[in-house]
Amino acid sequence: MPAPPDARGIVTLAVRNRHYLEMAVDMALSARAFHRDPVALIADSALARAAAEEYAQVFDRVELLPARFEAGRAPKYGVLAVSPWSRSLFVDADCWVVGSLGDTLHEVEEGPPVRLLGEMLGPTSNRRHHGFAVRHLIRTFRLDGYLKNHSGVFAFRPAETKEIADELLSCYRDEVLQRLRLGKLGDELAFGIVGARRGFGQLVSHPMNWKLERLRPPFDAPVVHLIGVLPPPTFRTLCDAARARRRDAGLPDRGDAHWRWKLDRVRRTHRLGGLLLGLKRRLGLG
């Protein structure tokens, strides 16, 4: 069924690993605790089938991720091509919504077709992104500036972003992977490069909680993204709330193995990132 032409909604993503589907379910249920906006899932064929069979009451729409976006870090770009909502707010599957996203949802109504959570930095910046000096990224990709971003939440209008989705894919595949070494080659690098070239907007509503290692309720912002190591009581509180929402929705209790799996990945990624940064500094690389 096609989405209404004026539909505004939330969209998330699950590919390759069943844990991402389970986290996407928990994220969707947490969003529904604060919003009536519909929620769509973009997924590869296996997880789309599982979502349609097991979680039809959770997602208003389940859409297939085009095959060209399935490899590596590219799946998130595909969301910009196939979201069913004319005004879309992407929230990563490994997030909990802990408050109203109303201010952020309103930001997609007008202005640039994509708004990222981040800031535009210039060639004199001393900041780093994914282990790379921003100045190095600006020189390498011949940019006037660089849009340092966090892609856990972003707003967009799909009618205007289908071409941008393929431009992001091309940038990631033909530029990022070819020119950068010894760093985390995440999807945010292409978002930062293409965002600088095209003049993407920036979210002003500050939807994300930061300083996760000290995070405790009550939360300052409406989204907690599991990209850092949370204090154990906070992690337990968020997992318990997710399980309670599943019970209230009449869904099977899957426990919290999917969240613990993600937390283990975060710990490993942080250790590897520290090792790579130390190596780059010893080698004098950007």
Give the helix/strand layout:
Blueprint: E1 8-14, H1 18-32, E2 39-43, H2 45-54, E3 61-64, H3 75-82, E4 87-91, E5 95-97, H4 102-106, E6 114-121, E7 128-129, E8 132-133, H5 134-140, E9 146-156, H6 162-179, H7 187-198, E10 201-202, E11 223-225, H8 232-248, H9 257-283
Parallel strand pairs: 1-2, 1-4, 2-3, 6-10
Antiparallel strand pairs: 4-9, 5-11, 6-9, 7-8
Question: Would you give an account of this structure?
Answer:
It is a single chain. This protein is an alpha/beta fold and 286 residues long. The chain has a domain at 8-207: Spore Coat Polysaccharide Biosynthesis Protein SpsA, Chain A (Alpha-Beta Complex). The protein has 9 helices and 11 strands. The chain has helices at residues 18-32, 45-54, 75-82, 102-106, 134-140, 162-179, 187-198, 232-248, 257-283; strands spanning 8-14, 39-43, 61-64, 87-91, 95-97, 114-121, 128-129, 132-133, 146-156, 201-202, 223-225. Helix 1 crosses helix 8 (232-248), helix 3 runs antiparallel to helix 6 (162-179) and helix 6 (162-179) packs across helix 7 (187-198). The chain is globular. The N and C termini lie far apart (49 Å). The model has no long low-confidence stretch (mean pLDDT 93).
